Amino acid sequence: MTEKTETTFETALHKLEDAVSKLEEGSLSLEEALVSFEEGIRWSRECHQFLNKAEKRIEVILKNEQGEPHHAEFQVEE
Q1: Mean pLDDT over residues 29-37, rounded?
Q2: CA–CA distance, 21 with 37 (Å, rounded to integer)
Q3: Contacts of 7 (CB under 8 A, 6+ apart)
Q4: What is the 3-state secondary structure (H, E, C) of 3-22?
C-alpha cells in the first residue's frame, strides 16, 4: 500500500526548476522535451495555487475591524 505524500510549495518549486533546467540543457529529444514541458506546466500551476492560497490567507489576517482588507505598502528595513 502506497502512502500519498502532500506536496509543499517548496517541493513543487523544486520540481518546476528541474523541468526548466532539463529544457534549458537542450539535449532532450522532442518527446522528452514535451514531457518535461508538461511537467513544468503542472508544477507551475501547483505553485500558482499555493501562492493564491497564501495571498488569501494574508488578506484574512490583515482585515481591519470592518472586515475590509487592509492594504499597506511593503517596506524593507535597512
Answers
A1: 96
A2: 11
A3: 46
A4: CCCCCCHHHHHHHHHHHHHH
**All cell numbers assigned to 43:** 508544477
User: Does the pLDDT at position 42 exceed 80?
Assistant: yes
Cell 500551476 appears where? 45
Cell of 48: 500558482
- Asked if residues 62 and 69 have their Cβ atoms less than 8 Å apart, the reply is yes
Is residue 26 over pLDDT 60?
yes
